[in-house]
Design goal:
By secondary structure, the protein is mostly beta strands. The chain has 1 helix and 7 strands; from the N terminus they run ββαβββββ. Helix content is 9%, strand content 39%. Strands 3-4-6-5 form a 4-stranded antiparallel β-sheet. Strand 3 and strand 4 form a beta hairpin.
Length: 128
């Protein structure tokens, strides 16, 4: 049985693809530290957020939008199926927010931007 650890770094490459031109047109790279102490506090805040909802079905979601990268943690509580009522004063720091698709609550562990380039970054999967 595993568990999700607290992230301390975000590293990766991605690219924007142009269907009409049948090629990648922009390349992105990120290599940044995540404040793991703050991330752990945010994860615990969400774990203690709900009045009665408990689950082992948690997940992290990585969302990229051009150079912007967001890492979210969620407990996947969906009000159509679950009782997602928050405890009273459950989030004094304001860390718990609605997911980008407005279906559940998340905490944002990282929100930053990567580097962009018209050519592949050396050592990336796109560098052939």
């Amino acid at each position: 049985i595993g568990a999700i650890g607290t992230p301390d770094k975000i590293t990766g490459f991605w690219a924007k693809y142009n269907i009409e031109g049948n090629k990648f047109i922009t390349f992105y790279s990120i290599n940044k530290q995540i404040d793991s102490e703050l991330a752990g506090l945010k994860i615990n805040a969400l774990r203690e957020y709900y009045k009665s909802f408990k689950t082992a079905n948690t997940s992290m979601q990585l969302i990229v939008d051009g150079p912007r990268v967001r890492l979210l943690y969620t407990m996947n509580c969906f009000s159509k199926l679950d009782d997602c009522t928050p405890r009273k004063n459950a989030d004094p720091n304001g860390w718990v927010v609605r997911s980008p698709d407005d279906t559940t609550e998340v905490v944002v562990l990282f929100d930053g931007t990567g580097e962009a380039s018209d050519t592949p970054f050396p050592g990336s999967p796109y560098d052939k």
